[in-house]
Amino acid sequence: MRRPDHRRPVIVRLVLPFLMAMTLTGCKPEASNPAAPAAEMSPMDVSTVVAAAATVPRTLDLPGRLASTRVAEVRAQVSGIIQERAFEEGSLVRKGDVLFRIDPAVYKAEVDARTAGVARAEATRTQALRQSERTETLLEKQAASTAQHDIAIATLRQAEADVASAKAQLARARIDLDYATVRAPIGGRIGRALVTEGALVGQAEATKLALIQQVDPIYADFNAAASDPSLLVEQAAGKEAAEVRLVLPNGSLHPDAGRLLFTDVSVDPGTGQVSLRATFPNARVALLPGTYVRIQVRQGTIPGAVVVPAQAIQRSSAGGAQAYVVVDGKTALRPLRTGALTGAGWIVEEGLKADEVVVVEGFQKIQPGMPVNPVPWKGAWSTEASRKS
C-alpha cells in the first residue's frame, strides 16, 4: 500500500500565487511612456509697434547748463548789528522788499547832527547876507571902502558854500540811515541767510548777507561746433526763427519751447566750438541754475526717418541703445544708433528699418531667440508727422 504524498499541497500553495501574478500582469494595459514629449507651451504675449517712417524735425542735440538771468549778492553797505531778518529763506522776493534791518541808532543820531549843522550854516549865511547888504549901502554913501565891501561879499559866498556842504553831509547821513534797512536789489528767488540776528556786519568790508537769483526766464548756455554751417548764427541773429527745446536730466522734454538769443563772437581755440545762449520761461521755477541739460535746436526736417516710442529703447551695460524686434515669431536683440528724442519718440539712425516689429512692453521676461506672440501696443503713440506712404 502506497503512502500518500504530503508534499503536493505545499508545492501547490507556493506555485499558485506565482501563476496568478503572471496572469494578472499579462492582463494589465500597457503603461504610458514617460519619455513621450510634453505638449509645447504657447508663446508669450508681448506688446509691439511697427517702426514708423515719418518726416520729423532735424535737430542738433547739444549738452548745456542752466544759468540765472540775473544774480545779485546782497551785502551790508553800513556797519552795525543785525536786528532782524525779514524774509523767508528760499522764497521769491520782489525788488525793494526789506531783507535785513541793521541797528539804526548811530545813523539816526548822525542825521540829527547833520540837520543841526545845516541850520547853523544857514544862520551864518543869513548874517553874512545882511552884512553884505549893509556894506553895499555904506559903499553907495561912501561910508565904507571897496575893500570892506569885497570882504562882505566873500564872507557871504563862503557862508553859502558852508550851507551846501552841510546839506550834502545831511544827505549822506540819510543815505547811511536808509542803508541800515537792507532791501532786495532785484526780484527773484533768495537763498539761505548767510548771517543771523546779532551778527556784526560791514565793519571792515561789505559783508555778504544773501544771494538772489532771477530764474524766470532762465538761460541755457551750450556750445556748438564752429565747423557747422552758419545756420545757428543766423538763427541767433534773428534772421530765422529757431525752435529750441530743453531735455531734462530724466529724459523728458520741458513743456515750454525756448528762444535762441545769441552766439559768441569768438571760437574757443582749444575745442573749436562757439558758445550760444537760449532762454526758457520758468514761471513755476522748475528749472534751477547749475543743472546740466541737453538742448535741441531744430534745423529743418528729416523725411523718412525711422521712429519708435521712447519705451522701446533700452540701454546695454555699456550704455548703448538697443531694442527687441520680432522676426519670424521670435525675438532678436538689435544694437541701435539713435538720434534725437522728439515728441514722436526716438529717431533710429542705424540698426532698424521701417515696418519692423519692435517690442515696447514685456521685454523684461524675454530673451533673444524666444518665440513670442506680438500684440499691438495699447499705449498712446503718434509720430506727429506725415508717414511715408
Helix tally equals: 4
Structural class: alpha+beta
Name the CATH class of the largest domain.
Mainly Beta
Largest sheet: 6 strands, antiparallel, barrel
Give helix % range. 10-25%
The CA-CA distance between the termini, in Å, is 117 Å
* Strand segment count: 21
Structure write-up:
With 389 residues, this protein is an alpha+beta fold. It folds into 4 domains: 48-56 and 302-376, conserved putative lor/sdh protein from methanococcus maripaludis s2 fold; 61-69 and 216-300, Elongation Factor Tu (Ef-tu), domain 3; 76-103 and 180-214, Beta Barrel (OB fold (Dihydrolipoamide Acetyltransferase, E2P)); 104-178, Orthogonal Bundle (Helix Hairpins), CATH 1.10.287. It contains 4 helices and 21 strands. A 6-stranded antiparallel barrel has the order 2-11-14-13-12-15. A 4-stranded antiparallel β-sheet has the order 3-10-8-5, with no helix packed on it. Strand 13 (258-267) and strand 14 form a beta hairpin. The longest helix is centred in the first third of the chain and has 36 residues, at 105-140. The N and C termini lie far apart (117 Å). Residues 217-300 form the Multidrug resistance protein MdtA-like beta-barrel domain. It is found in: Cell envelope. InterPro entries: MdtA-like_b-barrel, MdtA-like_BSH, MdtA-like_C, MdtA-like_HH, RND_pump_MFP.
